[in-house]
Structure formats: C-alpha cells, structure tokens
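Handout, section 4.2: multi-component inputs.
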Amino acid sequence: MRMTALPPPWDSVDDRLRARGLRWTPQRATVIEVLAEADGHVSGAELVERCRLRDPSTIPSTVYRTLDVLEELGLVRHGHGPDGREEFHVRPVEEHGHLHCAECGNSWELGNERAAAVADALRATDGFEIDIGHVTLVGRCRDCAAGA
Amino acid sequence: MRMTALPPPWDSVDDRLRARGLRWTPQRATVIEVLAEADGHVSGAELVERCRLRDPSTIPSTVYRTLDVLEELGLVRHGHGPDGREEFHVRPVEEHGHLHCAECGNSWELGNERAAAVADALRATDGFEIDIGHVTLVGRCRDCAAGA
DNA sequence: CTGTCTATTGCAACGTTTCGCAATAAGCCT
DNA sequence: AGGCTTATTGCGAAACGTTGCAATAGACAG
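Output:
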C-alpha cells in the first residue's frame, strides 16, 4: 500500500529497532509515516489525530509509547509549549529554542546563535548544559515590553 | 473558627477583591489559608489536596479558578515543572528560576543574580524580557555533563 | 431588611497524557 | 513451518486541568 520508501532518517528505523531487541509493528509504521511528513513541531494530540486518519483503530497510548521509543533512538525530541503541553521536535535539523510572549500571545523561534548566548550564560555560572529546545521560554516580547 | 489573622499580603485580600468588583467567598478563603501556609512552590494538585483537608467539599475547578484570580492580583505566579505540570510560586519573595537535570533528576534553584545573566543574554539579542520563573530549564548538570 | 445584579460555585463532561494488566504477535531458533 | 520468548498492543482507569451551563449567593442600593 505504501507507494514510496521513507526518506532518511526514517528508512531504516525497523532495522534499528530490531538491532536493539525491539520490534517493528504496523502501529509503529503508522507513527513513522506520520512523522516523516511532519517535519517541524507537532503536539502529541496532533500526532494521535493524524495517525487516526491513516488508521482509525489507532490507540493514543500506543502512539505516546512509540514516541517514547523513538525519542530513545534520537529521532524525535519532546518539549513543552507555553502551557506545558507536550510538543515534539521532529527530525531536529537544527537545535533551537522557543519564545512566547505572554502578553500578545505570539511565538518565535530562537535560532542557533542566539540560543547559544543563553546556553553560554548558564554554562558560565553553573556549568549547567541547558537543553534549550525542551521548554518554551515565556516572557514579554520587545514590542509589548516597550508598550507597558 | 480561624484563630489568627492572616499575615500580609494575605490579610487584605478580601478588600482587594471587592475593590475590583470581585467577591469574597468561603471557598476563596480556604485557598488563601492554604496558600498562607505554603510559602514556596506548590503544584496545583497539592493545593487542591490541602484545600480538601480543610474543606472536604472542595471542588478542583473552583481552586484552579481562584488561583487564576489570585494570579491577576499578583499574589501567586504559575509556572511549569520539568514535566510541564503546573507549579505555583507563592508570595514570590524573590525572583528565581529552576534548573532540572534530565539525567540525574535533581533540581536546583537559580538565584537572582545568575538568573539575571540569562535574562541579559536574551534581552541583548532579542529585546525579549524573559519571565525566568515561568518554566523549569531542563538539561544536564555539571556533574552529569562531566561524566558523559 | 429586601431586592437586584452578576460574580462564583458545583457539576458533569471533555482533552491530554500516563499506567497496569492480560492477550497478542514479533523475532528468532530449529 | 512450528514453537518459544517477551516486547507490544488494546483497553480501561486514573491524574491533571479546563470549560460550559444552570443555580447560588455575595455586594450594594434603597
């Protein structure tokens, strides 16, 4: 039924799972297919919904457990949006963070170099290596701060 | 039934509510009493549980709604723990952040001055005024980073 | 003290995510 | 192809929060 082969890094997931004593199942294949088409950010609920589109018998807990496994393989990373809900970084091409303005509600990405400045500040004071992509930093953007 | 008056800033909450056209109710009094004894950090679930101890008829949604109101008055601030769950900063004596090591699971507070370094780094690059207390920064602590 | 206005409550249902457990089915060996 | 082992699944329940709505009850004016 599948017309095209999955693009890397998704093409060899089945072998990588088996190499670890884990198993390749149709449910996992569904999640992988959805992820392969979803580069960027997706919430857990979105992922479940898209899987259900392909396979109406999809069970949420299976999706979440598959995501856990894929995170161990390094294929996705989970983080948390401004409201604390789960958010998955798919195929993280580049490390980046997220900013969210509590006043106007807008969000921005925090690119590599600028994220590095934050990471450096923490490393210098605490020796702490922050995972900048894990949480959404909340505060007020330049414009809202100026207006208040 | 209450033996002692509430300490500031809790002593005049009723008047401050009324001054805004809001109301002083027994349910809100219960939440205030619990908060007055809980300086520091408390999760939403803990707050509900402690309220239920005083008043078994406590309803969760009422507690959460009261917390929203108190946040508007500036008496509490909500944030998110490493797992994204809600966490309330009660009577924030000093602004501070939180660090959590994903490897060893320990957590630390990020005091005023060190938090300022992070805030400065962001302000310099984006003009973004971070609310450092809102989220728990996740990463690896000095020891875990060294060991890996 | 009574009446009016509307903020708040209680309740029930929902959304997101996690967990335990018994049944199923991958993977592998012969 | 058949059998064994155990990773996964499906399912139900639970934890944490949020939301809509009708009923209740603060606050204030007269």
